[in-house]
Amino acid sequence: MKHHTPVLVLALAAAFIARADAQIPSVSDVSISQGTSSRAVTVTYTLADAPAIITLDVLTNGISIGQQNIWALEGDVNKVVQPGSGTITWHPDKSWPNQKFGAGVVTAKVVAWNTDDPPQYLAANLVSGNVKYYTCAEAVPGGVQDILYKTTSLLMRRIYSRGKAFEMGAPKDEYGAWTSDGRETQHEVSFSHDYYIGVYEVTQQQWAQLMSAWPSYHKNDACKATRPVENITYAQIRGNANTDAPASASFFGKLRTKFGGAFAFDLPGAAQWEYACKAGNGNYKWGDGTAISASLNGATNNKDYEDTAFNEIARNAYNNAMGTYTAAAATLSTTSADVDATCGTALVGSYRPNSWGLYDMHGNVWEICLDQFSGNDSNPYVETPTPATESNNHPLKGGSFQRGPFRHRAAFQLGWDRAAGQDRGIRVAWTLD
């Protein structure tokens, strides 16, 4: 036991998570100390047996102080670490200011995650090419709404779907259900893999970071950086070649290259997208769990309608400052490319997230999926999509700022012909092995 200051008594603690793999990383020799001239806390440990993603928890009297208080970390933590000695520096003056450690014992809990079973959040830095992992939303430095994750880093959340199944599509009596063809026909999709999906739609700044271009229609300099990227073609997004791997000069090609090819970043499949959008809430619900209802004009087959509660969930035709919604207005472009974010696309993260902390799954811009679009009952979507061929359409999911709520339902989709448009964008996904 070491005692460095009058308010801090320190002890040793070690922890690791055992997982059913051939090589299980282990942690030992954990120590924690605090310098006399600053509040900086140093944690050292030894990692053995296999590389691992290392995370840290701090406990007083055996109880965690909360991940929201531990995010100011440096060193061998929140990333893949090779076996050997590791050092973590924690700055409680930044993440836990004006606090004193309890009178008893402070312990450090170092956790080693197998690299094929990573923590809940992933942040991919588009400048440095570094990837950091965090155990929960509270552990994300600055919080998930920090502008960093809307400009120079991609923040992604793990979707725990392996071994699970869900009913893709919608029942015919859901408000606004599309019954003219089979695009919303319910069928079960079973998942054999977990995957990560972007907390936000890809923004204009994130696109420019890799592509050195600002192609979007909505160009207002005061707010364009954190609006979703749009007005992009499939060739720019992924390349027109009908291959599993994106073209090297495309956004996804450059994204994979930036991170050394270790991450097969891509568009989500339609089933992956819809499962993430519904966020466990099932039928008749928006992604945050509120009920889909019609408060104006009713909702019969394929009709647009206003759901006033929906205005808190998504940028849509009723709250984008285009004026009173009409079916005709929904097909119009905004009056100027230089409109601010009260009109046209909204800044990502402006509306309430769904139950899994994902923003703008409903509304803002249509989101392009990897599969081949199908309105055919006999050709249902599956977990692992085959990229659509050049002659076929891709599904567009989630609705846009130009449309009313029925098109924003998780089950609805349009076919996209790979052409650019101001109402369609992308979200990044990565399927785990």
SSE inventory with pairings:
Elements (H helix, E strand, L loop, with lengths): L1 E4 L2 E3 L15 E9 L6 E8 L3 E9 L2 E2 L8 E3 L4 E2 L2 E7 L1 H4 L10 E8 L7 E5 L5 E4 L13 H4 L1 E7 L5 E4 L18 E4 L4 E4 L5 H8 L22 H4 L13 H8 L11 H9 L48 H4 L35 E3 L25 E4 L15 E4 L7 E2 L3 E3 L2
Parallel strand pairs: 17-20
Antiparallel strand pairs: 1-2, 3-4, 4-9, 5-6, 5-8, 5-10, 7-9, 11-12, 11-13, 13-16, 14-15, 16-21, 17-18, 18-19
Précis, in short:
With 433 residues, this protein is mainly beta. It has seven helices and 21 strands.
Task: Give an overview in words.
- This protein is mainly beta.
- Helix content is 9%, strand content 23%.
- It contains 7 helices and 21 strands.
- The longest helix is centred in the middle third of the chain and has 9 residues, at 270-278.
Measured distance between first and last alpha carbons: 43 Å
Q: In total, how many beta strands?
A: 21
Examine the secondary-structure arrangement and name the CATH architecture of the largest domain. Alpha-Beta Complex
> Helical region count?
7
**How much helix is in the residues?**
under 10%
Overall shape: it is: globular
Radius of gyration: 23 Å
**CATH fold descriptor of the largest domain:** paralog of FGE (formylglycine-generating enzyme)
Q: Provide mean pLDDT, rounded.
A: 87
Structural class: mainly beta
